[in-house]
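Table S5 (text form). Sequence records supplied for joint modeling of the two-component complex.
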Amino acid sequence: MRNTPLTTLTGRVAPLMRANIDTDAIFPSRSKMGVDETDVSRFLFREWRFTDDGHERPDFVLNQTGRRDAVFMVALDNFGCGSSRETAPWALRDFGIRCIVAPSFGSIFQANCYRNGIAPIVLDRKDVETLGSLADKDATMTMTLDLSKQVLETSGGSRFLFTMPSGVKTMLMEGLDTIGVTLTRRAEIEAFQRNDVSTRPWVYVGNSSG
Amino acid sequence: MTLTKTITKTQAPRTLHGKLWDQHQVAVLDDGSELLYIDRIALHERSGAIALRQLAKSNRKLFEPSLVFGTLDHVLDTRVGRTDQTLIPSGTEYIRVFRNEAAAAGIVLFDIDDPRQGITHVTFAEQGVALPGLTLICADSHTGTLGGLGAMAWGVGISETEHGLATQTLNLVRPKTMRVTIDGHIGTGASAKDIVLALIGQVGVTGGVGHMVEFAGSAVRDLSIEGRMTLCNMAVEFGAWSAIVAPDASTFAYVKGLPYAPSGAAWDAAMETWSHLKTDDGAVFDREVVLDVGALGPHISWGTNPGQVASVTGTVPDLAAIADPVARAAAKASLDYMGLTPGQPLEGVPIDAVFIGSCTNARLADLRSAAAILKGRTIAASIRKAIVVPGSSDVKKQAEAEGLHRIFLDAGFEWRESGCSLCFFGGGEAFPAGARVASTTNRNFENRQGPGIRTHIMSPATAAASSLAGALADPRKVVA
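The corresponding structure-token record, covering 690 residues in total, follows.
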């Protein structure tokens, strides 16, 4: 599957300055999602965003004026820890969030972001706190991401440089169909497997006894 | 053979992880990442249904269906007399889509009535689907559990699962290496769960982010394979990408004779390779952590992340004593959610419910440990719900053969069919709103076991002792 390429991005910023925001919080397992559902944004932060009877909680950041159309989210350490559920980045993407800035991420969540056109950007905690504080003070603040230059710049002129491994950066910028790219190496994979069948035959007894 | 040995000697000492990466490397890509060969892909109905459906929709075929295995655990009901119907909204759809797509893809599925059905990370160990030295992925964060067998196993998302299914590879940047050496003899009443809770309490929930962890040391060697799986299961809770224990004589004894394990000449060939699956002397890790667990006692979580733990004889911490402001703010929020106050002793905090189950602690040894505490006793009258959910249908059968189910039933527990169950919303069930739960699971996150549920994670022995007391309790005080 191809994603919409992400090269530059400009928009509002939602600060959610907590540590260890887990994927159960981002996409609760009680979500009534069907197998083939394509827009899962209504489940995003369900317990924090809505009361049990479905009313918005006005104090939650994504319910506040100026944050509903946020494209950036800023959070503290270990964002997206916990369950591997890819529905968490899907819900963020479907809501419109295309870039998350945090001091660190849960590793599966981070890998899932790259595969779904969301840039997970790591900055020092001090810079994240500065950015979060700027966004908190001014709901009209916007930010611009330039992936090729690896820089974030706020409308007030604050600049933050970051690094990102080149492979995943390319994946985001070109919206690559990664399966298609890997399948161009099918011959190499088949050659590896042929050799492996002779050196590690027990790996392949698998289903013969089932 | 001589040539192989010469080459090995000229190489720099390697970690076990390093050897497994080298062995599975199909290609090094231009950006420095690697295309890694995947030996096993495990699927469950929650994420597997979507992965197989999406692959089918994109008109792609499985690269090697014989290396892919499925089971039902997340959505499946665990109540006795279960069918495809389940309390999870759209749950039946997940089960049926998964069953149909698995059949169309030609993969083995441990279906609802199959005696091999069970929690992914439990049954795939018991059946020998996971083996030492294999790379194994599953769209489930607790896949690292199978590192307890010496497999290199890690959790992925649905897109990466699709990539694995279509290409038998994953494109990865090699994580950093971290060795956690655990020495000493744990005290009476403590187990692998208490070791890993104490470890996470020490290194914090981000202590392993970006690293693949090898557990070593005498305390790890002393653990059963089941205990090693409990240990590896929770490595993701301190952020580790994956975890492994080098296979040894205990591992080989566990694996030998399992349904999908090699036999005869294939076993001998496998053993020749498996005996080299260890870190070379002098190999350098990016990070080393050492933990002495001498006389370690039972541990319980007090907060809403698995690093917020204390000894069962300890107290809820004083917030002012937490130096890091982010950790202090997190602790404050946790205590508000948990309804606890700084300085409060953990022992004696009243509980409403007990859950013994999950990929962390629902193997036969776990059930034996809880049953030893419960034998001839009954749970406190104040307990509103007490459940035992075996990790697999095979564990259930073995436990019943030993009479463990009678002990649980007589004590006042429900005795369930196998599945993930109330670890989260498994099977569509949750605890009564706001209940405080003694749980043998791996995550004490807010709302995970139901809205407002206050989860304390602990070992099966501690959960059993707490069920008797109707409050958090020290299993060492239950007199045999």
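Note: The mean pLDDT of chain B is 96.
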